[in-house]
Amino acid sequence: MCGIVGYVGKKEAVPFLIERLNDLSYRGYDSAGIAVLNDGDIEVCKEPGKIKFLRETLSSAHLEGIIGIGHTRWATHGQPNKVNAHPHFDCTGRIGVVQNGIVENYLTLKNELIAAGHKFVSQTDTEIIPHLIEEYYDGDLLEATRKAVRRLEGAFALAILSADEERLVAVRYNAPLIVGVGGGENYVASDITALLKDTNKVYVLENGDIVSVENNHISISSFLNGEQPVGRRLTIVSWDAADVSKGKYDHYMLKEIHEQPRAIENTLEGRLTEDGEILLRTTELPGEVLRRTSDVHVVACGTAYHAGCYGKYLLERFLGIPVNVDIASEFRYRDPVVGPSSLVILVSQSGETADTIASLHAAKEKGATTLGIVNVRGSTIARDADAVLHTKAGPEIAVASTKAFTAQMTAFMLIALKMADERGVEIPFARDELVSDLRELPELVQTTLEETTPAVRELAKVIAKHEHCYFLGRNIDEPISREGALKLKEISYVHAEAYPAGELKHGTIALIDEGTPVVAVMTQAGVFDKMISNIQEVIARRARVSAVATKTDGLDEMASEVITIPDVGEVLSPVLAVIPLQLLAYYTALELGCDIDQPRNLAKSVTVE
Predict the structure, then answer these.
(1) What are phi and psi of 430, to 5 degrees?
(2) Is residue 601 packed enough to be buried (19+ CB in 10 Å), middle (13-18) or exposed (0-12)?
């Protein structure tokens, strides 16, 4: 959600703050602002809209200072305007705060502070924080902040500046925050990608951490348990600045679509041997858990949820045990039936999705074993789950997830094969052939990218002329059709819905009229003829059908176009089928002139409920 940056060093802070806010803009935002400490005063500049408007204002404002904080806001409390933009200040204007998160008890605290004489100017929950710190401030920002945040309820990450002290204070509670270590300068940011141009050494803060950040000193303690320093391991990040640049591509999304062969290859690396053995360390998937698991629950949100639906098909087909897939925001509130013999798999690219984290903790309270499938090392899910399988997809910057999705699908294949091996189960497929195809999957993804792009670009011109588009699939193709619909609507704003093809007669077909675009995903031989019948049903209503399939077999006589993908077997073909759907969303949005990497109203990581 919101993005936070902070700088303490010897250079001018403003260029750093602006550039790093721009690096965090993929998280989604609707206003931006910075504040710097300058000779005993705090200078501030903030604007609604894009960071470019903040840059324009700063070009004439001439803010100076070597200590500062910055923020990109995704509005929750109060409209996205200049008054509600961060940073926010106390009554004196000498304590400034930026926040990612929500203070749930802000109204109670605000009424208390108003009664004490404090004046508020915004509609945000954040503004109560500097006023509360002001109440406790007696010359020590760290201690005043410690006392103030103990009274906050909710989820928050904070960076705080005082005009009277040459340091920053940062706080993490149920919202991500890291501290970067440099030479004679130190940094604060919402995530690792923002600091890759500056350092590869970071402290990943944990819940309750409160940090004093100076140019040559970092002190981490807890506001939850006393005031003694706490030890946090310095993490050396393997990503580099090139991983977060667009390179030769116009958009991060297109770059990340084309990075999928490497993302899948990296996810398989060291886990799939030449002789077909699946090697997962006990920290990735403990063997004793695999053998005693009676049921599996997959919990995720958005695109990760669709990867979980794919995983359900694999696990049930391979193992013959029940698998449930839940949207995290529902799982955490429905009192799910899980216990000590349950395996709960939490899927999240960032590892910081708030509802998924809450679901993890709920599952652990019931005694279940938890496994995280995440892309970001050191993230909350990676730390809190009993085991973690990192997807190794590299930084994903575009809001619309692509390479993380296919890496998650690959991870599920590894898990399903490993569990079958550990349990002595003979899978209903030729294992050697499946493993061979899995090893060739990166190359086949590359082939799919090259061979389907021209046809997809032409189809995108058609889709861009319509307000609605429908996606159909059966069996293991059904979650792929859902993912295709999600991609299209989230970046092109074309209304898109996906349905199991067998549901057409149960209401959906009423939405079909002349020219309506319908995209049919058809990689499953067992339901191919059924899908043909479903296509005929919508064609009879004069819909315009496009098919993504591994074979034509008469499809080219009824569909307007057939986008063929390599036939890699029924359980791996969906990985290839999603590639043209990702490209379709991208090129449709390009046709419509949309902001592809930062679609409206969306954030990359949903770190609050």
Answers:
(1) -70, 105
(2) exposed
Among residues 544, 485, 482, which one has the least CA distance to residue 512?
544
How far is Cα 486 from Cα 483, in angstroms, rounded to an integer? 5
Alpha-carbon separation of residue 573 from 230, 234, 307, 563 (angstroms): 48, 41, 14, 13
- Residue found by looking up tokens 């058609």 in the block: 462
pTM: 0.84
Which string of DSSP letters, residue by residue, matches 533-553? HHHHHHHHTT-EEEEEES--T
β-strands 178-181, 186-189 pairing: antiparallel
pLDDT band at 540 (very low <50, low <70, confident <90, very high): confident
User: Is residue 309 flagged as an active site residue?
Assistant: no
156 neighbors 175 (Cβ within 8 angstroms): yes
Task: Give, in words, the CATH class of 455-592.
Answer: alpha beta
According to CATH, the topology of domain 252-428 is: Rossmann fold (3.40.50)
Please indicate whether residue 2 is annotated as part of the active site. Answer: yes
Task: Exactly one of 110, 403, 487, 604 is catalytic; name it.
Answer: 604
pLDDT in tens, 441-499: 999 999 999 999 999 999 999 999 999 999 999 999 999 999 999 999 999 999 999 98
CA distance 21 to 27: 10
Please identify which of the residues 2, 309, 469, 594 carries the catalytic annotation: 2
Architecture per CATH, 3-244: 4-Layer Sandwich (3.60)
Read off the pLDDT of residues 214-270 as tens digits, 9 standing for 90 and up. Answer: 999 999 999 998 778 888 888 888 776 666 678 899 999 999 999 999 999 999 999
